[in-house]
TrEMBL record:
<keyword id="KW-0472">Membrane</keyword>
<keyword id="KW-1003">Cell membrane</keyword>
<feature type="domain" description="ABC3 transporter permease C-terminal">
    <location>
        <begin position="247"/>
        <end position="376"/>
    </location>
</feature>
<dbReference type="InterPro" id="IPR051447">
    <property type="entry name" value="Lipoprotein-release_system"/>
</dbReference>
<keyword id="KW-0812">Transmembrane</keyword>
<feature type="transmembrane region" description="Helical">
    <location>
        <begin position="20"/>
        <end position="39"/>
    </location>
</feature>
<dbReference type="GO" id="GO:0098797">
    <property type="term" value="C:plasma membrane protein complex"/>
</dbReference>
<dbReference type="InterPro" id="IPR003838">
    <property type="entry name" value="ABC3_permease_C"/>
</dbReference>
<keyword id="KW-1133">Transmembrane helix</keyword>
<comment type="similarity">
    <text>Belongs to the ABC-4 integral membrane protein family. LolC/E subfamily.</text>
</comment>
<dbReference type="Pfam" id="PF02687">
    <property type="entry name" value="FtsX"/>
</dbReference>
<feature type="transmembrane region" description="Helical">
    <location>
        <begin position="299"/>
        <end position="320"/>
    </location>
</feature>
<protein>
    <submittedName>
        <fullName>ABC transporter permease</fullName>
    </submittedName>
</protein>
<feature type="transmembrane region" description="Helical">
    <location>
        <begin position="340"/>
        <end position="365"/>
    </location>
</feature>
<feature type="transmembrane region" description="Helical">
    <location>
        <begin position="247"/>
        <end position="269"/>
    </location>
</feature>
<dbReference type="GO" id="GO:0044874">
    <property type="term" value="P:lipoprotein localization to outer membrane"/>
</dbReference>
Length: 385
């Protein structure tokens, strides 16, 4: 094996520019695979962390008639807070439909009431308690942009009470919070739960609860959704992105492997005398096949080294500065920050190296198999085979 490695290294160095072109193309594929997967991993971790901190907590306990994807379920999707809740760490939220009228326009919104003393999620609900306004409200940055509202603005809100009767009053925007989680921001206004109970007459009613403990909560008439259930849609989106991205770097890797394959075919064709000499000196055909396979697989080793030389500084830089995401991407309903910080795990790097080395070895072995069928005498004479 040592002899094969020495001969392979000398032959690669002797090939000069052809070798380094293959190595650079393969190293580029190596770096792109790690970069893309690192970016997806960074997005995944960041989105999960933000969703749990701002919206999901340790799971949701939903009223059995409430479906988050069906706004019509809000009418019947609430009930009195069960007595069992008192012994559990749960934060109630009541959701009602409403409309606001900024600048003469009508915008439909989800009016959400939450306990202003809660610290289960990162919403700045303590500001609702501190405000002196009649109906203080907080909204997200996206909602503020859509309605052209600023902190301190007063806007007319209309809602229905428990009997279906319309009522209206002015609310005061006490704070505009900035979050990456658009599902608690777009089209939503948050007020104190006590105030919403008073406005709607639905005293002690809740649509859902935020779970603030690690344990699973089970109450008749309510359905529990764990963190895993709640983050499934986000996980599915990220997995889809990984699959679509893999097409790009598979094509890139295929181009690099095709270059190695062509180089191996040309090398075997031009070095028939050398192959005949090896066999005449006592090497078996399969030892020569192994020599050429090792030579081809060494492209991947050199590509890994070259990729590390310019890839590691690039990855470190990206990890510290992040990658800017266009503002329009944050309005698509998917949790995504304005900057994604890639995460490069040791498993990702070792796995990518393994894929590149195995692929290059297989591609190198395929043309080298022809050597096993060569006639050594004809090879020494340089006859075409």
């Amino acid at each position: 094996m040592k002899l094969a490695l020495q001969l392979a290294y000398k032959n690669l160095v002797g090939a000069g520019l052809r070798t380094w072109l293959n190595v650079i193309v393969l190293s580029f594929a190596f770096v792109v695979i790690i970069f893309y997967n690192g970016m997806i991993n960074g997005w995944n971790e960041q989105a999960m962390r933000d969703n749990i901190a701002w919206e999901y907590a340790n799971g949701h306990l939903l009223h059995e008639n409430y479906d988050p994807l069906d706004p019509f379920s809000l009418e019947d999707g609430h009930a009195k807070i069960p007595s069992e809740v008192a012994s559990k760490k749960l934060t109630p939220i009541l959701i009602r439909q409403g409309s606001i009228y900024p600048e003469g326009r009508m915008i439909s919104i989800a009016l959400k009431g939450i306990d202003h003393n809660q610290n289960t999620i990162k919403l700045p609900t303590h500001l609702l308690k501190e405000s002196k306004a009649n109906i203080p409200a907080i909204i997200g940055k996206r909602m503020a942009d859509a309605a052209n509202l600023k902190q301190g603005d007063v806007v007319l809100l209309r809602w229905r009470d428990k009997n279906g009767t319309f009522d209206a009053a002015n609310i005061t925007i006490t704070n505009i919070f900035d979050t990456n989680v658009s599902t608690i921001d777009k089209g939503q206004i948050w007020v104190s739960l006590d105030k919403l109970w008073q406005m709607t007459g639905l005293t002690n009613h809740a649509t859902l609860f935020l779970n603030n403990s690690e344990s699973v909560v089970s109450i008749d008439g309510w359905k529990f959704k764990s963190q895993k259930d709640l983050t499934k849609s986000l996980t599915d989106i990220i997995e889809t992105k990984q699959v679509s991205g893999s097409i790009m770097y598979i094509l890139l890797l295929a181009i690099a492997l095709l270059a190695i394959f062509d180089t191996q075919v040309l090398s075997i064709f031009r070095r028939q005398r050398e192959i005949g000499t090896y066999i005449a000196m006592g090497m078996t055909r399969w030892q020569v096949v192994k020599l050429f396979t090792v030579e081809g697989s060494m492209y991947s080793i050199l590509a890994t080294i070259v990729g590390c030389i310019y890839g590691i500084p690039l990855f470190i830089y990206m990890t510290h500065t992040g990658i800017g995401i266009p503002a329009a991407s944050q309005d698509m309903g998917v949790t995504i920050s304005d900057r994604i910080y890639p995460v490069y795990g040791i498993g990702l790097i070792l796995g990518t190296i393994l894929i590149v080395v195995i692929s290059a070895t297989i591609v190198s072995f395929m043309p080298a198999r022809k050597i096993a069928k060569m006639n050594p005498v004809d090879a020494l004479k340089g006859k075409m085979q």
